[in-house]
Amino acid sequence: MTVEVQRVDLASWERGITTTVASPRTLFWRRFRRHRLAFASGIFLVLLFAVAILAPWITPYDPDATDLTLAKFGRPAGPSIEHPMGTDQLGRDWLSRLVVGSRVSLTVGFLATGVAIGVGTVLGAVAGYAGRWTDMLIMRLADMLLAFPPLLFLMGMLVGFSRPSATVIAIVIGVIGWMNVSRLVRGEFLTLRTRDFAIAARAIGASKPSIIFRHLLPNAISPIIVAATLSIPAAILTESTLSFLGFGIQPPTASWGNMLQIAFVQMRDNEAWWIGFYPGLFIALTVLAFNFVGDGLRDALDPRSWIR
Questions:
Q1: Residue 3 has pLDDT above 60, yes or no
Q2: Quick check: 99 and 107 in contact, CB under 8 A?
Q3: What does the pLDDT read at residue 303?
Q4: pLDDT band at 62; cut points 50, 70, 90
Q5: Helical pair 36-53 and 94-130, crossing angle rounded to 10 deg
Q6: Is the dihedral of CA 262, 268, 270, 275 positive or negative?
Q7: Are 102 and 161 in contact (CB under 8 A)?
Q8: Model pLDDT, residue 298
Q9: Which residues in 145-156 are b (16+ Cβ under 10 Å) and which e?
Q10: Rounded CA gap, 165 and 148, in Å?
């Protein structure tokens, strides 16, 4: 009888081990899925990406085609069956322009974030690992750039372009957005360089680039991913602000920012609420979605939260 009880306990113990041990990828997905707002936001962003990619094929009308019969006396036409989101003062379908504008805004957001993350990661890694005068030089440069008002700095850099493209705007936003990323990476490297694996890598004669990019950087990738997720909505808001002020994407190219620029006048003069409501709504939803996904990634990638 005693032997049978021991066999049952051993079998249940093995089953418990089998069910509780999971790969890091499985743990990450399980924890991210528990964050309901992050999971729902991820679905929304996937659908938004699909719309942006398929924009040339799914827009119901040519986004740049004008129809003055719809815009009587320069007043935008309200929502209807043919134009669910109405038209602007030139008779252009607002839904088609909103779809095409998502492509521009997301492109600027991702490209600007890529530039900021790339530059900030390299400079932060070098500063955190090298220390001394290299660290001081890079961090003082970051402090100096952070002292300038970012919006005025961007406007000053773009004032020389009569019609700046989305690529130019994204690069400019990314160039002045690397400072916070570099501070984050530097802080991680200051901790990681004192760990046993970093000391062992130095002891066996590994080169500095090898230690930085092969040993330390993979261990700092989680906060970098979270920072990238939170930087995308900031870049989208920056582009929208610049376009609203007339320094960003120029008409007739549609972006959510210059759509709001048109909306300001039309809502004031013609009470065309739909002109400003829909671009503002999608900017708000996109920024919220990225922020919620960033929160979910932060919880899912934090190993300390897995023990709860």
A1: no
A2: no
A3: 57
A4: confident
A5: 120
A6: positive
A7: no
A8: 80
A9: eeeeebeeebbe
A10: 24
The rounded distance, in Å, linking the Cα atoms of 104 and 96 is 13
Write the CB contacts of 58 (distance below 8 Å, at least 6 apart in sequence): 51, 99
Taking residue 11's Cβ as centre, other Cβ atoms within 10 Å add up to: 10
Q: Which residues contact 222 (CB under 8 A, 6 or more apart)?
A: 301, 302
pLDDT: is 219 or 107 the higher one? 107
Cβ atoms within 10 A of the Cβ of 304, count? Answer: 6
Q: How many helices (H) and strands (E) does the chain have?
A: 14, 0
Mean pLDDT of 190-197: 84
Q: Confidence band (pLDDT; 50, 70, 90) for 2?
A: very low
Q: Which two tokens stand for residue 17?
A: 């081990």
CB 197 within 8 A of CB 164: no
Q: What is the rounded end-to-end Cα distance, in angstroms, of the chain?
A: 37
Nearest to 243 by CA among 231, 263, 259: 259
* Measured distance CA(213)–CA(211) in Å, rounded: 6
Closest listed residue to residue 140, CA positions, set 183, 184, 105 = 183
Cα 6 to its chain centre, rounded Å, is: 55
What's the pTM? 0.82
Q: Around Cβ 24, how many Cβ atoms within 10 Å?
A: 10
Q: State the residue for tokens 């043919």.
A: 82
Token pair in block for residue 82: 């043919």
- Pair 238, 211: CB distance under 8 Å: no
Per-residue model confidence (pLDDT) at position 276? 86
- Taking only the tens place, the pLDDT of each residue in 225-256 is 888 888 899 999 998 888 888 888 888 888 88
Report the candidate in 41, 174, 156 with the shortest Cα–Cα distance to residue 111.
174
Q: Which tokens belong to 151?
A: 């919006």
Distance CA 273, CA 268 (A): 9
